[in-house]
Amino acid sequence: MSKLYVGNLPSDCNENALRQLFQEHSLACTTILVKRGGYAFVDCADQSTADRAIDKLNGYTYLGSSLVVEPSVASAAKKRSSGVAKVLVSNLPIQIRPEELDQLFSNYGQVQSIEKVPSRDPNTQSVLISYETQEQVQQAVNQLNGYDLDGNPLKVEMSSAESRRRGRSQRGSGAVFSGLPGSGRQTDFPLRILVQSDMVGAIIGRQGSTIRQITQMTRARVDVHRKDNVGSLEKAITIYGNPENCTNACKKILEVMQQEANNTNKGEITLKILAHNNLIGRIIGKGGNTIKRIMQDTDTKITVSSINDINSFNLERIITVKGTIDNMSKAESMISSKLRQSYENDLQAMAPQSMMFPGLHPMAMMSTAGMGYSSRGPGLYGSGPAPYPYQSSLPTQQGVPASDTQETTFLYIPNNSVGAIIGTKGSHIRNIIRFSGASVKIAPLEQDKPAEQQTERKVTIVGSPESQWKAQYLIFEKMREEGYVSGTEDVRLTIEILVPSTQVGRIIGKGGQNVRELQRVTGSVIKLSEQQATPPSAEEETTVHILGPFFSVQSAQRRIRAMVLQSGTPGGTGGAGSRAGRGSSQEGASRSKRDGSATSQGGTTSQSSSQQQSAGSPSSQQQQQPQPQSPSSPQ
C-alpha cells in the first residue's frame, strides 16, 4: 500500500469527485481521505500505481486548480525534525543584533533560536529563526515579509520541506483562478489589468497550459478572476511578483491576446491597467505632465477613465494604453513604478497615525479613502479586488490584536434609516458585507414593544479590526449621504463593545482619569454601565458605550481593546472568536443596560447621570475637538 498526498484541491472537491478523477486516468485507489484546507490522502494499491498517479496528475489542472501529487511523508515528528517551524529571514541590515531580532519576532511566538546562515549579498545578512509551532511561523511570514527594518525591506519565508512543497504548488498554479488577491502571500505591489472576457480562454490555455507556461517563464503568479461578475464583458487579472517579473508576465499576456485577436480578426489590442483612485492623481501629474512624459518616452497613447465611473464599492480607475506590445510594456513598467512609489509613500505617511488606532494596519484606513461618492450600482469588476492593495507588511504592535482577530461591535442607527442601509432587495448591505469582509446583521423590531417607541435599531458587526473599520465607515457614510445630518456636521452614532468586567476599573482609572483622557484624545463620549456591588467574575462582561463621529469612535474602540488586551485577560477583544455567538445572545441585556443608563433617576437628572458614568466629561467637550476631514488622514 502506497499513500499519496494530493494538494491544491478546489474547495468543493469531495471523495467521490477525487475517486472519479483517479478512475478516469486508470489509477486504482482504495481509501481516499479529503481534509479541510484543500488537500487529501489517497491510498494506492501498489507503488507502481502511485508512481503513475504522480506522473499523470502532478501539475494537472482540475476544476481550475493545478494539483500537487507527491508521496506522503506525514508524521508530526518527522515534520518537526525537518525544520517545519523555522523561518528564513534575509536582506537584514549588516549591523542588526540578535537581541533586536528576538524582540521583533517574539511578537508572533516564543523564539527558540536564531541561527546565522550564509547570505548571497555581502552587504546584508540572513538568519534562521525557530518557533514552537507552524502557526507561529506562518504568522511571522504574513506580518513581517516586506517589513522595512532600518531601510531594508525584509524577505521572510518558511524554511522547511513544507515550504518547498508549497513552492512547487504555487509555481505550478498558474491556473489558480481564485478571485481573492489575499488568497496567497502577496509579493511587492500587485499589477492588476483588465482583459476582454472572450480572451480569458486563450490566456488560460488548454487545461491551464498557457498561463502555467507564463508563470514558469516569468516567475510571477497570475490570478485570473474569471468567476467574478459572471456575464461581464471584461475580467480582471492580478499579477504578483517583483516589478520586472510582473512586467514580463503582462507582456506575455499581451502577446497571447494579440495572437488571439489576429486569429479572430479583432485588430489591435489595448492594455488596461487598474489603479486605485487615490493614486491616479500622481500618475497624471500636475497639468498632466507625468502622463505626457510617459507617452512621449514610450510612444503610446494613454487615457484615464472618469472619476464618475467609480463608486463606494469599486474605487479602481482604468488606465488605457495603446501602442505596440513592446511600447505598451514599457509604459506599463513606468506606470507601475509610479504607482508602487506612490503606494509606498502613502504607507509611510499613514504609519505614524496608527498610534491613534492600535491594532489596525495603517493602510486599512486608506481602504475607505475617497469613498465620499454616492453609490452608483455594484462594482464593475466584481468583489475580488481589494479596495487598496495593501499587504500586512507592518508587524502587529505588541499588546494589540492581530489582524485576523474576530471582534464583535454593536452599532445603533435611527430606525428610519434601516431601509437605506439595507438597500433595494438587500443590495447595499450585501455590498457592505462583500467589501468589508465582516458579518453585518440588523436586529428586527422588538415584538413586545410598540414600534413608535423604538427609535433605534441595533446592527451587529463581527469581523477583524480592518473589517470593522470598513463596515462601520460604510454605515456612517451612508447615513451622511441620506441626509441624516445637516450641512457639514459629522454623523454621530453610538457604538457598543463588550469588555471583561474585571477591566472596567482599569478603563475608568483612578477618579475617572483614564476615561477622561480617552475622551479628550479621541473626541468621543464614553460611558460604562454602573458598577456592581459585588466583585465581578472573570467571565462577566460590561458594555462600553461610545458616542461620536466615525474617527472618534474608531480611535476609542481601538484604544479600549488594546488596553484590555495588554492586561493579558483572555478574550479581551470584546466579543472575539467564540464570543461572537454569546455577544448576540446578550443583545437584549445590552440594550436594557444602555436604555437604563440613559434614563437613570428620571428624565430630569439623565444628563448628570450620564456625566457621572462617563467620569465627568460632558459632550460639549468633545464637540470642541477638531475632527479629521478625510478617511485618509485621521488625526
From TrEMBL:
Biased composition (Gly residues): 569-580
Annotated CDD domains: KH-I_IGF2BP_rpt1, KH-I_IGF2BP_rpt2, KH-I_IGF2BP_rpt3, KH-I_IGF2BP_rpt4, RRM1_VICKZ
Keywords, ordered alphabetically: mRNA transport, Repeat, RNA-binding, Translation regulation, Transport
Gene3D superfamilies: 3.30.310.210, 3.30.70.330, K Homology domain, type 1 (3.30.1370.10)
Pfam families noted in UniProt: KH_1, RRM_1
Any single biological process term in GO: mRNA transport
Entry-linked SUPFAM superfamilies: Eukaryotic type KH-domain (KH-domain type I), RNA-binding domain, RBD
Region (Disordered): 151-181, 566-635
Database matches in PROSITE patterns: KH_TYPE_1 (PS50084), RRM (PS50102)
Residues annotated as domain RRM: 2-74, 85-161
Biased composition (Low complexity): 597-627
The keyword RNA-binding appears for this protein: yes
Coiled coil: none
GO molecular function, one term: RNA binding
Top-rank taxon, per record: Eukaryota
Family designation: Belongs to the RRM IMP/VICKZ family.
PANTHER family: KH DOMAIN CONTAINING RNA BINDING PROTEIN
Protein name: Insulin-like growth factor 2 mRNA-binding protein 1 isoform X1
